[in-house]
Amino acid sequence: MVVFAGQGDARRAMSLLWREAGAEEPRPGPKPALTVDAVVAAAIEIADEHGMAGLSMRAVGERLGRTGMALYTYVPSKSELVDLMYDAVLAEARHTYDLGGGWRTALVAWAEDLWEFYLRHPWVLQVSQARPVLGPNEYVVLDTVLRIMFETGLEPPAVRRLTGALFQFVRAIAQVVAEARVAAAATGTSDEQWWYARSALLMELAPDFHTRFPMVTKLAKADGFTLADETVPYQEQASTETFHAGLKALLDGIEASASRKP
After folding, report:
1. Taking the CA of residue 183 as centre, how many other CA atoms within 13 Å lie in the half-sphere pointing to its CB?
2. Is 73 a member of any domain?
3. What percent of the chain is predicted at pLDDT more than 70?
4. Residue from 111, 71, 86, 70 nearest 17 by CA
5. Residue 81, in any domain of the structure
6. What confidence tens digit (pLDDT) does each residue in 67-97 have?
7. How far is residue 246's CA from residue 244's CA, in Å, rounded to a whole number?
8. 103/34 Cα distance (integer angstroms)
9. What is the domain range of residue 218?
10. Which of 50, 135, 193, 249 is deepest in the core (most CB within 10 A)?
11. Domain boundary at 71, 90, 109, which?
12. Is the backbone of residue 67 left (phi > 0), alpha (psi -120 to 50) or beta?
């Protein structure tokens, strides 16, 4: 399920995003029973528990002891709510990294923190990056990593491109892990059952597999598909290994680019 940010009224959404934390627009009459922040917090709880598929104005209202219609006093629609949720949860992100050990050490810490954030809130991965939310916390996250990246000494265009590569790398692999964690519950089949059933059929239906795919066979014979910890589901463990190996390769490339700069 992919959700696109920025689908509601632009002015209303941006006004809500950029209001001061905890501040509400003044309204005449009695003090409101709820706040925008309370609505957003309840929505985040639901998304953490059930994903974006479980999010609705009605579900948020029920959690707050209100009707779904009562929430429209605070948030114009579900579209604006998604924007507010996305930016609000980014407030968890770490804002500073020690650069005393060099940019590479700081960047590893940043990538690992982002990885853990995505796995704590996997619904964030369902909010498309095609159109950013443009909220204050989103900019804090960007500003934080840029502060590290500029320490490489690379030119601004290279910093922009490589920062984007790092974001997309971490996000893409975290998404695979997040999906692997819910696959068994969603399909009723464990990783082990799925792999066993299909690998057995593969050998039966493609007896010439080894000659048709010699490089895959070479990797298999060299235990390239063997993982260290059998207690962790295969896909999750393989993706975690890919994250660490891929991050090292990306940082090696950034370091090489920085060293070539006059």
Report:
1. 18
2. yes
3. 94
4. 86
5. yes
6. 999 999 999 999 999 999 999 999 999 999 9
7. 6
8. 44
9. 192-232
10. 135
11. 90
12. beta
Confidence of residue 25 (pLDDT cuts 50, 70, 90): low
* Residues 248 and 208 reside in one and the same domain: no
Same domain for 63 and 102, yes or no, is: no
How far apart CA 42 and CA 114 sit, in angstroms, is: 23
181 & 121 share domain: yes
How far is the C-alpha of 30 from the C-alpha of 36, rounded, in Å?
16
* Nearest to 103, CA basis, from 262, 227, 259, 240: 259
Q: Would you say 137 and 20 are in contact if contact means Cβ atoms under 8 Å apart?
A: no
Chain centroid to CA 96: 20
Q: What is the mean pLDDT of residues 221-239?
A: 82
Percent of the chain with pLDDT over 90: 73
**Angle at which helices 234-260 and 103-120 pack, to 10 degrees?**
150
* Six token digits for residue 18: 């950029």
What's the pTM value of the predicted model, to 2 decimals? Answer: 0.89
Quote the DSSP letter at residue 155. -
* Domains in the chain, number: 3
Give the number of other CB atoms < 10 A from CB of residue 226.
8
